[in-house]
Structure formats: C-alpha cells, structure tokens
Amino acid sequence: AIIGPNGAGKTTLISQISGELRPNAGTIHFAGRDITHLPVHKRSQLGLARSYQITSILEGFSVIENVALAVQAHTCHSFHFWRRACSFQELRQPALEVLERVGLAERANTPAVNLSHGERRQLEIAMVLATRPKLLLLDEPTAGMGAEETDHMIALLKGLKGAYTIVLIEHDMDAVFTLADQVTVLVYGRLIASGTIDEIRHNPEVRQAYLGE
C-alpha cells in the first residue's frame, strides 16, 4: 500500500508507473524491463492494469458488455464491428468468469448505469482483471463507499492477494492494515518510510506526518 496525505504524490506515482505521466528523471522498471518510454497500451500488454479514483465504466452498456469489451481490448482483436462484444463466446465466457470472481455474475445483464456505487467499483475491478494483469494498480478502490460496501471491497481484494501483485493507494487505514504486507508513506512527493504494518504503525515520523499522535 502507498499512503500519505492529500497532495503527497500518490496518484502521480501511479500515473507514472501506468504510463499516463512521464517522469522528469529516473527510470521505471517492470519485470526486469525498462518501461520508462513505453505507452500505456504497451504496458497493459505486459500486465500492468490500473483503476482510478473516479470510477470509469461505460454506463450505456450492460455489466457483461463492459467486461467483454475489456477482454476484447486486451486481445487486440477487432472481431466484427457491428456485433455486440458479449455475443462472442470467446469474449463472453472469460467475462462471466471474471464477474463471478468479483460477485457480479447475477448482475451480468444489468445496465451499468443502474449499479450502486459499490457495484460500479466491483465492475471496474472486473474490467481490470479481464486484461489478465500481473500487477494491479488500484487508486482508492473504497473511495465514497459506506461501511458495508467497504467491507465487501476489502474482502474482494483480500481474495485477490494470492493471485496478483497489488499496489494499493488508500486513505482508509482499516483497509490498508487489513490488506497490505508492505506500506510506503509519501509526504509532499518524498518517501519518508517503507516497511511492514507494525514498522509503519510505530514510526514516529509517520505518526507525526500522517497518522496523527
């Protein structure tokens, strides 16, 4: 997990890793490869996938169509332009499998516009998983959620930990302390600490700068 106060540079860091922002200096390496100058889609093909603070889904499409389009984009196959993406079994089946994993299988044919805020977040996670990522970059996945939705999202992410490497930006400290194995703390673009949950809990600089005395 990456934590820090507003303006610390957390989203900027994620945007540089994903390729949406270019660093002023230094290099970015993923799986032993220098990806500093690779565009976003090339990084995605290597296994980098990102979610955003503000949910980004296609409201005019059904839940399964959103995921099927994510599968299609990752396979780089155009299929037939005027047919619905979810009509292709090679897109529909993996989309259904991902929806099952995030708990939205029963909502597959629901228009995305009718989803609750928490379900929209689940759908976005499903779209990320549909790209078969090696690394998930999740930017505040519990933002705007109530207590019950937050608990559901934490349980979902906890179930993904064994299968994916996850970099999590999160302000909900309960989520951070439940999910993270390692925590890095940024303050005004500067890394002030990185370590286990216990090390971060008891770091005096972190307590003063972020967690509060």
Produce a short descriptive summary.
By secondary structure, the chain is of the alpha/beta class. It has helices at 10-18, 40-46, 63-75, 89-102, 117-129, 147-160, 173-179, 197-201, 204-211; strands at 2-3, 29-30, 33-34, 48-50, 135-139, 165-169, 183-187, 190-195. Strands 1-7-8 form a 3-stranded mixed beta sheet. It has a 3-stranded parallel beta sheet with strand order 4-5-6.
| CA-based shape | globular
Strand order of the largest sheet: 1-7-8
**What string gives the helices and strands in order?**
EHEEHEHHHEHEHEEHH
User: Tally the helices: what do you get?
Assistant: 9
* Strand segment tally: 8
The helix/strand class is alpha/beta
Q: Biggest β-sheet: count, sense, barrel?
A: 3 strands, mixed
Give the fraction of residues assigned to helices. 40-55%
Distance between the termini: 21 Å
Mean pLDDT, all residues: 87
Low-confidence stretches: none
Beta-strand residue fraction: 5-15%
Break the fold down into its secondary structure elements and pairings.
Layout: E1 2-3, H1 10-18, E2 29-30, E3 33-34, H2 40-46, E4 48-50, H3 63-75, H4 89-102, H5 117-129, E5 135-139, H6 147-160, E6 165-169, H7 173-179, E7 183-187, E8 190-195, H8 197-201, H9 204-211
Parallel strand pairs: 1-7, 4-5, 5-6
Antiparallel strand pairs: 2-3, 7-8
